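Example record for the data management plan.
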Amino acid sequence: MMKANALLLLITVSNLLRLGLVRSGGEQPLERIAIHRATIAIDDSAYIKASPEVLGLKGQNNGWVTLEYRHPNSSNDDWIGVFSPATFSSAVCEPESGREEAPLLCTAPIKFQYANYSSGDYTATGNGFQKLQLINQREDFSFALFSGGLSNPKLITVSNTIAFANPKAPVYPRLAQGRIWNEMTVTWTSGYGIDEAQPFVEWGPSGGDQTRSPAGTLTISRNSMCGSPARTVGWRDPGFIHTSFLKDLWPNSMYTYKLGHRLFNGSYVWSRSYSFKASPYPGQDSLQQIVIFGDMGKAEADGSNEFMNFQPGSLNTTYQLIKDLNNIDLVLHIGDICYANGYISQWDQFTAQIEPIASRVPHMVGSGNHERDFPGTGSFYENKDSGGECGVLAETMFYVPAENRANYWYSTDYGMFHFCIADTEHDWRPGTPQYKFIEHCLSTVDRQKQPWLIFLAHRVLGYSSSEFYAEEGSFEEPMGRESLQELWQKYKVDIAFYGHVHSYERTCPVYQNSCLQNASNHYSGPFTATTHVVVGGGGASLADYAPFKARWSHFRDQDFGFVKLTAYNHTNLLFQYKKSSNGNVYDYFTITRDYPDILACSFDSCQRTTLAT
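Corresponding structural encoding:
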């Protein structure tokens, strides 16, 4: 079996060599593994033994595998790649141009670890031992030992196969707000297609009668991808994505739910039970707590470094949210979700990472460049940041209440909050459909019932003193605030949030580059201008600031963190910036404002009046 797997990999990498897929550099470290240069160097005296051979015997969706291995000619450059399916995928890739030969075979490890990671004497003895965590990804797994480092890999040996007891099981539920306030959606992943089982959610009030709601099913084919690597070496079948709509919820009530599939032989497959709290009625006066961040990505709890430390803060952010989950009502992740960049396996790993959060509270997402952008696909930016995904994975893996999920802009309410989420990967300038949406979203909120008006977008459409924006001379996404600042001012947006810049920054209440009020830790009285906040430190590698500080920039922190908004009532809002490393507050401010203060005239937001009596 080991030699058969090795032969298949040789066929794969030789075709990849013709394709020329793997590029040096870039932000997706799986590309840095030069699999196209791999050669066969099978050593019959080398081995990898993986145990146990079956995971999830008690229904678990993850498990730890112990690896024991030996390589008589060991070196510090030896590494172990985790492959799934175990046969390194014999799927055929489409050629990227007419000059390439077809068929082309695809493979890519889903993660890797150096052989000496937990065995300090590996180089001297050739013997190694380590533990790796696997999640249920609908296929089996094998482990391949390579020498030659990442740049010149030589396949030495391949392990036995590991599998989950039920690889098709429903996994990784993620909640999202529906189109109306008393509707919750549940999206999950499984290996069951509609020709094999009927998906549904069994749910009801905690301790009360349960009902069943059907789920719709979507899937994604390789032909849906727009380019490499998503269409080639990064392709991995993402399974079936199911979404169910739980309607007519009672405000603030607790509900339990579990995912189900009724197989056509009459048997059932179930997930474990979960719970959530229904949203408050819009305008309800109660304690409401919202977490906001961007650019989190994913990382591995076992220390495997498939991302080469590109997202070192990701787990800390996740752990802090889990720790405080009883004090969180809603999560808003504003783009650059998991940085799969065309390596489809990473979406499973991300949804598994956030499951403790997304299965309990609504996890709303926005679109970023690493989800959407690819040349010739209608994205506003003609770069390859999505790795050929062109938005398809994000739009399918996560539900949002957008009119058209290909245009990822939408609004959502939570009690006293009204959120307008823009899509910076599509044109937002005056005259575009998105500009019309933004103005409609801002203009139709009832500020007497929902006093806290929040604008969110991935790229910085407001203000940022990041180094790369400063180099452009714009301190923003070009054409950003020039297009939208009059809307923010006219409709008195309290706070505008952005990601994209991997750090934290808060401005004064600013309009047209001028502070209309000095930055403070407490604001009271009439609205003056919008406070702009960059909160892109969710986990991806940190960005640098410009060497000088603009007048409108009040507080900067080059670290991983997130923002928590707490609305105590209609007149008091608390803003807190917390570090992911310890959960402590490093910046804060409060707003105290009555409804007449919202109605009051401010610069460029005065209502027209008449002299008539």
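Summary line stored alongside the record: Residues 1-26, 98-105 have pLDDT under 50 and may be disordered.
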